[in-house]
Predict the structure of Carboxymuconolactone decarboxylase family protein.
Amino acid sequence: MEPRLDYFGNPLAGKVLRHINTASKIVSDSTLPATVQELVKIRASQINGCGFCTDMHTKDAAHAGESAQRLHLVAAWREAKVFTEAERAALEVAEQATRIADAAGGVTDEAWADAAKHFDEEQLVALISLLAVINAYNRINVINQQPAGDYQPGQFG
């Protein structure tokens, strides 16, 4: 598989990506736990069929010490006993937010209330922002057919 174009080498794309990357860095530096951030990025990327981002975030999470068992179970998190209640709440919001066109009202009040039990307002803002950012990255890579498999942990800084 070859990408449709050299998106990462294009000057206009570089300008767009600088803004998305800045937003991503702000979220990364927030108080939302890094483990939750990676799990959410992985799950959204799986749902969107973004091999490039799934490859990147599973490798980054493993490099940061995440267990292979948990990484293998992200796609089936509801049936897995290895995730905390906070992680489960974040994964539910991630799924509903990523499938926003399929979920008649977007994220349900129940899913939001559950997340609010585990995360403060700043962390909830970070979660919403993270979902917006990862979904944007997913769409860029899926539309461009960006191939997966070659990512090295920390490759983009």
User: Anything to note?
Assistant: DSSP finds seven helices and no strands in the chain. The CA atoms of residues 26 and 126 lie 8 Å apart. The radius of gyration is 15 Å. The chain has a mean pLDDT of 95.
